[in-house]
């Protein structure tokens, strides 16, 4: 078992609510110069969830599950800034009002620009939600450290999810991490150069068909763990030869130049001490079922 400082990680109660779908109200233009008018960010996405393909939707930057903010009218202000930073992948979410009250889900990651956190609930729960409902997130994870691997930094990762990711110690200070996809450095686009990775995401560019086919980028699903090769995310998003970053996919493919499936950072190292291991099952959807059931059972007992 990986040794961490979990007992010292601060846990907040965070509150948010679903945000209505957003639109600029005008045509977009894709990377081939073709105009489009399609569903995009935000909303309670009833038929789009974690584990579904991130490609093939009649949309652009589609967010799966439920897109949440602390205040949909002030996405770049307090308290939404704190919600973005302190909510982490794998945090337990509970609906605290309305017809779906008591329903359990989990946080997947956060999407920059829209300033949404992505929360997964079952379709049955989503069909009961409204945009006035309150969702409580048990926010913990920022500050989590691997005590025996000081060169590998963690961000946006609930300790419980870390323990379920089937990470193996391989000796020599290295960890073997299951991922569905290895992404070459040249494919990373929008969001590159950001000053920190404790909120937001950055995109896997998919404008080159040959590269998409070669690396099977079009097989990526929402919630997949992916390896970003030669990318160092310790103090922002940057190219560094030999570095490896592990992230989780939070939104769909995109038609806009420089964009594609969005990735929230979970692990990063400037040295090749993270060994990505291809595993087609490396997706958060298969790891959170027990957590949700345990929390639901605990809630019923109370």
Give me the strand/helix succession: EEEEHEEEHEEHEEEEHEEEEH
Mean pLDDT: 95
Q: State the helicity in percent bands.
A: 10-25%
Beta-strand content: 25-35%
User: What structural class do the secondary elements suggest?
Assistant: mainly beta
CATH architecture of the largest domain: Beta Barrel
Number of helices: 5
Terminus-to-terminus distance: 31 Å
In short:
The chain has helices at residues 80-86, 123-126, 159-163, 209-214, 289-301; strands at 11-18, 28-29, 35-36, 66-69, 92-95, 104-111, 116-120, 135-140, 153-154, 168-171, 174-179, 181-183, 202-203, 225-232, 238-251, 262-269, 274-278.
Task: Please explain how this structure is put together.
It is a single chain. The chain has 302 residues and is mainly beta. The chain folds into 2 domains: 9-141 and 287-301, Thrombin, subunit H (Beta Barrel), CATH 2.40.10.170; 153-284, tm1086 (SG structure) domain (tm1086 (SG structure) fold, 3-layer Sandwich). The protein contains 5 helices and 17 strands. It has helices at residues 80-86, 123-126, 159-163, 209-214, 289-301; strands spanning 11-18, 28-29, 35-36, 66-69, 92-95, 104-111, 116-120, 135-140, 153-154, 168-171, 174-179, 181-183, 202-203, 225-232, 238-251, 262-269, 274-278. Strand 6 (104-111) and strand 7 form a beta hairpin. The longest helix has 13 residues, at 289-301. The protein is globular and about 50 Å long. It starts with 10 loop residues before the first strand and ends with a helix.
Spell out the blueprint of helices and strands:
Elements (H helix, E strand, L loop, with lengths): L10 E8 L9 E2 L5 E2 L29 E4 L10 H7 L5 E4 L8 E8 L4 E5 L2 H4 L8 E6 L12 E2 L4 H5 L4 E4 L2 E6 L1 E3 L18 E2 L5 H6 L10 E8 L5 E14 L10 E8 L4 E5 L10 H13 L1
Parallel strand pairs: 11-17, 12-14
Antiparallel strand pairs: 1-4, 1-8, 2-3, 4-7, 5-6, 5-8, 6-7, 9-16, 10-11, 13-16, 14-15, 15-16
